């Protein structure tokens, strides 16, 4: 799936024809938190904006750069074509994202044949993340094993990243990471912390992470390092969910990690 690693600095968007939209980042004058006027989901840091003061129009980069004329294909739905829509198909109040399970209230990728929907930012989640030699694969559904973050399996019908530690499978629900990120986003709305700070503040409490693993596994050598790897992977996923390619690329910079999808 195409990732916009070098997005244009300025664009025209038909949803806001009065002004061109400029790409800004937390370090380039952007306030940290916003609600995307396209998908209606939270955002942090990088965005396209008209800079119209209190009447500012803001879009996540994936929402701003969505192509209405080009079908999107996702590896988790082979043979399915998703088309960008400016609003969810009817019944609007019942449309949910088939990645995270949350309501789709604005811009959405819709598959007419399969009646499937994806938030634009969820649609950009990488198929695989490789961090410090550990592979985390994106899965459409998971088994009944508990999530390594929430310790529950109620969200097993939605997307998760799966890996292994000492032969034991580990699942990380995308929805759980989104929940944690939203709490930090709401707190940041009060003090306007930087977009990168939102990503860092959103990371799950490592003292409680992966408690779903058997105690014997958590006592093994390398477990603390694996927790640090999970923390980095979570920061990557949160950055993508927030539509923030700047924070995403910062999270994976360095010799230990890279993203491919």
What does it look like?
It contains 7 helices and 14 strands. The protein has 261 residues and is an alpha+beta fold. It has 3 domains: 10-65, no CATH class; 76-120, no CATH class; 125-252, no CATH class. The protein has a 5-stranded antiparallel sheet with strand order 13-12-11-10-14. A hairpin with a 4-residue loop joins strand 8 and strand 9. The chain is globular. 44% of the residues are buried. Mean pLDDT is 80; it is low at 198-202 and 249-261. Residues 15-64 form the DC1 domain. Keywords: Membrane, Repeat, Transmembrane, Transmembrane helix. It comes from Setaria italica. This is DC1 domain-containing protein.
| N/C terminus separation | 6 Å
Find the count of extended strands (DSSP E, 2+ residues): 14
Number of domains: 3
Q: How would you classify the quaternary structure?
A: single chain
Binned, the helix content reads 10-25%
Uncertain segments: 198-202, 249-261
Beta-strand percentage range: 15-25%
Q: Please report the number of helical segments.
A: 7
Q: Specify the biggest β-sheet.
A: 5 strands, antiparallel
């Amino acid at each position: 799936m195409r990732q916009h690693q070098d997005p244009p600095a300025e664009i025209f968007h038909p949803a806001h024809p009065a002004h061109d939209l400029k790409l800004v980042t937390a370090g380039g004058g952007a306030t940290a938190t916003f609600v995307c006027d396209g998908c209606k989901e939270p955002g942090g840091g990088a965005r396209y904006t008209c800079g119209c003061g209190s009447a500012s129009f803001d879009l996540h980069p994936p929402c701003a750069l969505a192509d209405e004329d080009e079908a999107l294909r996702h590896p988790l739905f082979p043979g399915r074509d998703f088309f960008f829509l400016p609003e969810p198909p009817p019944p609007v109040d019942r449309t949910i994202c088939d990645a995270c399970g949350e309501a789709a209230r604005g811009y959405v990728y819709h598959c007419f044949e399969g009646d499937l929907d994806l938030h634009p930012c969820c649609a950009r989640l990488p198929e695989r993340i490789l961090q410090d030699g550990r592979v985390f694969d994106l899965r459409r559904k998971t088994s009944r094993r508990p999530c390594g973050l929430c310790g529950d399996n109620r969200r097993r019908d939605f997307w998760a990243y799966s890996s292994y530690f000492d032969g034991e499978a580990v699942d990380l629900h995308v929805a759980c990471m989104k929940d944690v990120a939203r709490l930090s986003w709401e707190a940041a709305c009060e003090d306007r912390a930087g977009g990168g700070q939102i990503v860092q503040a959103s990371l799950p409490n490592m003292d409680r992470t992966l408690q779903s693993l058997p105690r014997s596994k958590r006592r093994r050598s390398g477990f603390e390092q694996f927790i640090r790897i999970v923390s980095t992977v979570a920061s990557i996923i949160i950055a993508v969910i927030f539509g923030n390619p700047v924070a995403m690329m910062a999270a994976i910079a360095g010799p230990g990690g890279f993203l491919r999808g």
